[in-house]
Design goal:
Elements (H helix, E strand, L loop, with lengths): L7 E6 L5 H11 L3 E7 L3 H11 L2 E2 L2 H6 L5 E4 L6 H10 L3 E4 L7 H13 L4 E3 L7 H11 L6 E11 H7 L10 H17 L2 E9 L4 E3 L11 E3 L5 E8 L4 E7 L1 E14 L3 E4 L10 E5 L5 E5 L13 H12 L7 H20 L3 E2 L13
Parallel strand pairs: 1-2, 1-4, 2-3, 4-5, 5-6, 7-12
Antiparallel strand pairs: 7-13, 8-11, 8-17, 9-10, 11-12, 13-14, 14-15, 15-16
Helix pairs in contact: 4-5, 5-10, 8-10
Amino acid sequence: MNSQIKTIKTGVIGAGAISDIYLKNLTGLFDCFDVKAICARHLARAQIKAEQYNIQACTLEEMLADPEIQLVVVLTPVDTHFEIIRQALLAGKHVYTEKTIAETTQQARALCAMADEKNLYLGSAPDTFLGTCFQTARKAIDQGIIGEIHSFSIAISRNNDLGTALFPFLRLPGAGCLRDYMVYYITALISLLGPAKRASAFVKTPYPRRRNTVPGTDGFGEIIPTPNESIVTAILELKNGIVGTIHENNETILADRADFAIYGTNGILLLGNPNQFGDPVRLLRAKPGASLETETLEPVSGYGGNARGLGAADLVEALRSGRPNSASKEMAAHVLEILEAIELSGQSGQAKEITSSCVRPLPFPV
């Protein structure tokens, strides 16, 4: 980030698995943070991370009462987001949170309104769309390389036997494939093509219980609850008329496979996995004689490695310059409404209108 930007005193809330890459990047990769403290539900976990990264451990109450801390980065489970973010905004802190911004659209709207009322920045992951993969695709789209875009298709394959064994939080209600993983794809899609208008979907939970077959994991050999949706097929219509499909099947033999295509009149973009920052982008075009050629596009300069926290770093630059942040609260709330619409359509069998909108973020870096 811009080396001229003054650092901002930052607190991290949450000391779980995702905290290490955030703490590594916030204390090393990005130069705009001065990480002061970390807190967690279990103070002992915060103390371990504090010692590892040479910062302080404290309680949530102490962090929110600290006048030096201007920004908090929330890395807790999603069912805690609304209350923690609400308290942080009331304490006058800017906030960046892991996905999703809240559990429900109603909660997200309330947080957005509170941030606006208090003139505070609120941003939300995923921020992987700011990496080289999707910024390379953004450049190609903006330059008109693939012509007029009319459709897209996304197919995601994962292995829920492996996932629910390795990551016990996936067994908790609300941690299904929509909010845990499809959120990456929907965010990347909206950042490239703009906001959505309507969703129609099928949502399935074929195995509400399963045997844990992964040795060394919590509950190995036992029947474990897996109550969340694991197969979703949806059709989305965007406000600009572009239509497409998104399919996720977490009951396959594949640990993580992504097929993401955007179809234009002059070419097809084949994108990477939006859970990563720097996958290659391929361009498929017709050659004279009806044959096809595939070209790997030169990546734009930026972040290709695991740069989690990039959205928070952009929020700091936005704060200093007075512009909107790229991983904005409005886009996060809109993406959450899309996920809810897919879920509700799957339950009712009817298409669901999406009432919110958002501004397509500017190419990054801004």
